[in-house]
Every structure is written in structure tokens, then in C-alpha cells.
Amino acid sequence: MMDSIDELDMYEAEKRLALYNEYRDAARVFTYYVETELRAYLANGVEVEPHAGEGGVYFKVTLTDVWIYEAERLNRFVPETVVYSVGDVHVQRLKAEE
Fold first, then answer.
1. Mean pLDDT across the chain, nearest whole number?
2. For the chain, which terminus, N or C, has the lower number of CB atoms within 10 Å?
3. What CATH code is assigned to 2-93?
4. Rounded CA separation 62/42 (Å)
5. Are 53 and 67 in contact (CB under 8 A)?
């Protein structure tokens, strides 16, 4: 049983490292880093719209030309996605390479 746990831990560590390496390479071609309470994204277009709802304020975040930081996704590159968040939304402009 211990070998199975060690193998699973090693598999997860390798998957996280591969995802980080892909993120590092992908970040070179994107303009924005966007983080919500659930996930992080790289995008070339970002629009954040606050909305007042019954439970308080929530944010509609529209991202274009997107890379999604999620290990389990088969296709992390998508042309557009819309995210709704009740928590903070952080948008950072990435420094262009020179």
C-alpha cells in the first residue's frame, strides 16, 4: 500500500511540475494574469463587470485568448471564457519581453 501512495504522490508532483512549466512558457505570449478564488488564467483580453445581486456584489469576468491554469483540463487554450466570481478578481498586466 505504501508504494501506491508514493507512486500517486510522485505522479501528482510530476503533473504539477509539468503544468508549471507549461504556464511559464505560455506566460510569454499573454498580456494579463487573472486570478479568481477558484482558478488562475492567462489572457490577452480581460473585461471585469461588477454586478449587484441579491446576495451582494459578484463579478462577471470575460476573458479572450485564454490559457486556463488547471491540471485536469485536456485543452487549456480556449478562445473565450466567461467566469462569475463572488470573491476578489485580481488582474495583473504582464511585462512584455524585450
1. 90
2. C
3. 2.30.30
4. 12
5. no
Task: Give every CB contact of residue 57 below 8 A, 6+ residues apart in sequence.
Answer: 50, 51, 86
Q: Which residue, chain included where needed, has cell 463572488?
A: 86
Residue 92's SS3 state is: strand
Residue 43 phi, psi dihedral angles, 5° rounding: -150, 160
Residue with cell 500517486: 8
Q: Is the CB of residue 67 less than 8 Å from the CB of residue 28?
A: no
Q: What is the pLDDT of residues 45-88, one digit of tens each?
A: 999 999 998 889 999 999 999 999 998 888 999 999 999 999 99
Distance from first CA to last CA of the chain, Å, rounded? 51
